Structure prediction request, 532 residues.
Amino acid sequence: MDFYFDDYEIRSDTRELLYKDSSKKVEPLIFKLLIYMLENPDRVLTRDELINSIWESRVISDSALSAAICATRQAIGDTASKQKYIKTVSGSGYRFIAEFTKHSNKKPKNKKNSIDIQDKSHPDKPSSSLVLPGKPSVAVMNFVNIGSNEEDELLAYGLTAEINSSLARLPHFFVIARASASILSKLNLSSKEVGERLGVRYLVYGNLQKIAKRVRVILSIVDASHDAEIWSEHFDYSLDDLFLAQEEITNVIVNATDLAIEQAEIERSFLIPTEDLSAWGNYHRGLRYFDQANDVELAQTFFKKAIVQDPRFSRAYAGLSYTQTSRRILEASPISKTDADLLKAVDYSQKSIDYSPNDALGYMSLGRATLFSNRVKEAIPFFDQSIYLCANMANSYSMKAQLMSRLGRDYNQSNQLIDKAERLNPQSNANLFTTKMVRAVLMIGQGKYSEAATFSKQATLYNDTYFSIYALAAACQQLAGNPKKAQEYAKKTLELLPGCTVGSCSRLFHNDEKIRTLFIKALRDAGIPKDN
Prediction:
């Protein structure tokens, strides 16, 4: 079937898109989405319907769907602001609204031959003369005070400056200077025009409203190359202590921005043909599998490709260290201080630090490798340095809390670290099952076995949970006086890791010998085999 509207012609049989008889480059996924919308006009296509039909029920994020819709609009000269052809129906989905004609694969007369769609085209190459940097690029636009009090302009200005400064300290971002972003903030330009003039992909916009002793900040992140909002959230805070509140708001917004852009980069990397991936593209594909137990090897493949393309890529080495540690703790054999695989993980993280001494990810990965090498106390300064360099890295807080739970130190501080980790990264399954596990270990240390059983059960409810989490749940249920439940979790542990022994679970053991002995006995009683 051929479709015609305005100056566009879409040929479904030959998979061609023509504009005024000239062929346009379109990704196969985007072409498929466009055809589906044309075949189902004048009705709302829900998110679930599009995922089922276009992505064949694969799990994708809202930002990936938004990016695909934006790319489809871009292919036919539409934008999110104009919505001449594709209309967004708020809270429901999308609808193709333009009038068009269609014919049964009959090529109209006087149409020139065209070139087939090129699968290797980059999905969002900028038209600007300013080339986008290889790493994620961002500009923080002036936050707008929407309240009636002009004094609140100072708060809006202060937040803008602090957020810009904090993002600029993250070595994995290319951040435009405040002066340039501020100048363009005052002009009546579309996000696409701002992105082209500044040579960045992402723009951060904020609105601020202060009422009495509270402030609300509405944050939006826009992919300027597609003129599309990829993420939005609001934050509400008390202003009893203005300076503390401003610091807290800044930290939360910087972390949210970092996570949102990172997720957008991951999704964008999957729109690019594998052979066309840059070092950063390979790195972000690796991040997709970073914390997934079944895909550790795949993550390492992409990190290694990134290092081949850029031998000094600090974050790729940190990713290799993190996944190398994950590989080892997913195995059945007990871990020693001289474990060769974990020494390799330490070496990767040290290279990361050598190439970028101010990147918190390298120190977090080094601390993690050191912790699981059973050199618990040695890991403390690495997590502290990671938190010092980046106060927004959730993994650093959860890993330091895990370390302190092993040492039996200051339970209140450990819980505060866990609270911080969950506040900074509330949507990550890997982060949440780690924090629930740590809370369970803390409860064991305090003799609160029922609470430990509750937290360990919660830890098992997340996807990609490690075998050791089920082992912990088995021990906690046994200690709480629930032997049948303990045996069920022990059985699940052995299904995930058939060769599992009590020694395989040593990474969970408390450093206090009395608690350690209690924990080992609970594992054995639940059905985890002894070591040979």
Notes: The CA atoms of residues 43 and 452 lie 51 Å apart.
